[in-house]
Amino acid sequence: MDIGIDIGGTYTDGVVMQDNEVISYAKIPTGQDITVSIRQVLEQIVSGINKKKVDRLVLSTTLITNLLAQERKFPVGLILLPGPGVNPRTLRIKGKSIIIRGAIDYRGRIIETLDEQEVKKAVEQLLLEGIEYIGVACKFCQRNPLLEEEIVKIIKEDYPQIKCLASNQVHGLLNWVRRANGTVYQLMVATEYQFFIDQINKTLEQYDLTCPVFILKADGGTIPLGISAQHPLEGIFSGPTASMLGGLAAGGEDLTTVVMDIGGTTTDLGLILKGVPLQAAKGAIINTYPIPSRALAVSSLALGGDTSLNITNKKVCLGKRLGCAYCLGGPHLTITDALVYLGLSEIGDISLAKAKMESWAYQHDLVPQKLAEEALELFLDALEEKLENIFRQWEEEPAYRVWQLLSAKVDRPRTIVCIGGPAKDLGELWGEKKGWNVVIPQYASVANAIGTALAKTTLRLDFFADTQQKIYSTNIGGVHGRVTNISKLEGARDFSKHLFQEIRQKWNIIDEEVEIIYEEGFNIIRGWETAGKIFQIGLQTPPGLKGYMSKGGEI
Amino acid sequence: MNKTGLIFFPAFDWAISPTHPEREERLLYTRDQIFEEGILDNPRITEYKPRLADLEDIERVHFCVPDVVSQTTNAHLISVGSALKLGDALKNGEIKNGFAMVRPPGHHAMRVVHGNRGFCNINNEAILVEYLRSKYGIRRIAIVDTDVHHGDGTQDIFYHDPDILFISMHQDGRTIFPGTGFVDEAGGPGAYLKTINIPLPTGMTDDGFLKVWREIIKPALDIFQPELIINSAGQDNHFTDPLANMKVTANGYAKLTEELKPDLAVLEGGYAVETALPYVNLAILLALAGEDYSCVIEPQRHKADLRQARDVSLTIDKLIAYWQDRLNQATPDKESLFGKDRRYKRQRSIFYDTDHILEKQLETVEYCPDCLGLYQVSSSAPRELGKGYSIRGISIPLYACNSCQERAYEYWERIKVNNIRKVEYDVLYLQDKKNNRYLKESR
Description:
Strand order of the largest sheet of chain A: 3-2-1-4-11-12
CATH topology of the largest domain in chain B: Arginase, Chain A
Largest sheet of chain A: 6 strands, mixed
CATH architecture of the largest domain in chain B: 3-Layer(aba) Sandwich
Distance between the termini of chain A: 24 Å
Low-confidence stretches of chain A: none
Oligomer: heterodimer
Radius of gyration of chain B: 21 Å
CATH topology of one domain in chain A: Nucleotidyltransferase, domain 5
CATH superfamily of the largest domain in chain B: Histone deacetylase domain
Number of domains of chain B: 2
Mean pLDDT of chain B: 96
Helix content of chain A: 25-40%
Structural class of chain A: alpha/beta
CATH class of one domain in chain A: Alpha Beta
Strand content of chain B: 15-25%
CATH architecture of one domain in chain A: 2-Layer Sandwich
Number of strands of chain A: 27
Shape of chain A: globular
Strand content of chain A: 25-35%
Number of strands of chain B: 16
Mean pLDDT of chain A: 92
Helix content of chain B: 25-40%
Number of helices of chain A: 14
Largest interface: A-B, 44 and 48 residues
Number of helices of chain B: 12
Radius of gyration of chain A: 26 Å
Order of helices and strands of chain B: EHEHEHHEEHEHEEHEHEHHHEEEEHEE
CATH superfamily of one domain in chain A: ATPase, nucleotide binding domain
């Protein structure tokens, strides 16, 4: 059995799944203290089940997103080692930063050494500003962490009161701006996140749940709770991710589809291609600051079921959310009311929607039927435009190799999985107008929890080795080092597989296959002689879900 | 629109041969530097996906022997396709300028292609120009070639076309491949002074580089008034390039780019894969995007002697004086340049260094008062190894007059019949740019 709990901003959903069937579920409003919400959901869903038979529990939580949105009280400082390149003063880097000497190049060679006095001066300047958390970010630190390590050592020895973190421990992605921001954000949330982990462990103990616990990652995989302490940013955007997985669980394996999750104020849209949710090409962005975490390519439309209807110049237009739908006792007519008025939805009290729509329309000399239809038309137009953007972004993803450009393309989907609020009704309207296939999951109200419960523990390793410089690096923070005795691709492949295996054991991934996503070797030619090789190998556990809802997934 | 379009296509799975300068590794460190900078997250830069060019796009420019497929790999079609895609994005108003950071390069590929010359098979910039002209009706385009090698392929293709201003600044041909690009190569009789060659002395620094731009190229552009500027952005004037002997820095290239303001830049040569390309590519991209490039300082710079010798400065000053004088003189009229027999003829040998081919070629251009006139070429290239070909081609200009166009088809019928009677050529071509129609007859 698998338990999935999705702690959203408004609701917390929980399900217990056995053989891809929901055996119990609950939905409660999310409270102030999310551990209380988790407890309340567990109370309802695990009461009748044998806890010994629970294989794992997966949590998807807005905790990190919330912590980051609050812009934490303690300031974080950054020491930057940019070396040659873009003017570091023009970069979008989070937090107070000080630029110092010291640089590494793309091969991991030190091209400028540190000045210890300058490091100390920088730390003291940050201290004067009341900063107690310092991140260190050096370009190409994943190829050679030495300068970052030296700075961390200086800070630890001379300023033990400061908590510091080097960007090479955060992520190995080739993008130091994202790594620097990730370092700042990780410092910001680390303490509270550790507290959360402790609370969860206590709670589970109370419920006699001894199974391994995982956190849903923004890329649709999961990470063990304990290990997530080192990678807390992986847990961002859990809500949209969970709903994409929920859509996938209902749609079934190998499906190519759009998933649409309509909330009160926004609509999340994502793509699933042959059973694999599409990843954002460049990674996640928090509060306009790019970070290194991978995330699903979910786009939001600033329209939802509670989007209000307005009239300007005798034409209907869409406004902000002013409350829930009129037919549910809200203050104003909404998209949902338009659906209800036209007999396309059974939400709420139709007589309320009808009376209001008519009086409002007549007041403006308009035909209520037309007004409602035009409002829905506006919604569908916005949806169409957004989908076009999403498709174009997907189709325009850069390719750096001939084979990538020539490999067969997946056609644009013509199926839509609809989750949340009036998604079913709007989805059906869309399907009817555009000739799309519409899928409405049976447990649409707890689709997020289902997606969470069925998420796999996934691991992706982007391995890079330079045999001349004798270094290797990866996308995972802290996983880099020296490499000797590799000269051929086979050797590099074995080395990377071994590394993958080690991480996999730590991550508790037992029964998954390893897939090679790409592998390539470059000859380093200097003066017409081969001076070494550079290898790039991508390994991953196959993406997708642990299981898919059997026939009951669709209604 | 204030965006800079970028297509980065390093062709990590394509090489001329494993140890050739044009190998998979060439843009690997450029990838590292550009990705690591986080510059692709900059909202002023939009990355596009490359695409393949159509065969027709290539036939519009080249006589590929015996056909396009034999002279190109998919990597070539993607490299040029990337330039075309940015051209579309520019004309659709999505971007204010664009940089095709692509390989393989193309500026040594001439109109007739028997094989690879100077690492090039097909000419990326020429194909881009003809594509833009035929699709969007742009008429006047300038190509500024800042590669250290003479852009002899681009020169050859537009040598008789007065609507294309081709300017190449390069290391003097007496000291470097391809050994051409002297001031007397100044365009055919119908396009006199629409080819400007600036052969530069070895040891030129940023100072000389920028001075030549400001005092020859910029005035020439001002006179020509192009609708569009394309930059053949080779990077081998860099002080660390292993195949050339110049002293230009990444900042020098960026400064020139900033002032030239090309609408589209296409990467050409540059083979200091570690010491130059990561920095020069980055600096050019930043300059195009209007970002600060002053911190792109190569680590080798403090060790290098980047002073310009006095005799180098003097030679550059002489060149500037020469060109300023020549550009200010009145252009002789076309009819007199064509001479009494109203026909321009040129016989040449062309050496293909990469593929070891020696081509013998005869070109003729007919005088026409109303258009560029018909262009014809016959060319043969016996090979030591493998099959050599002999070809004949006719080209109808994009803005040809009706009578030239009709005559071209008469010639075409005649040479086809003649070639059946007495086989002289392996392949015959009719390139009708006006109707976008490309005919070919193989033996």
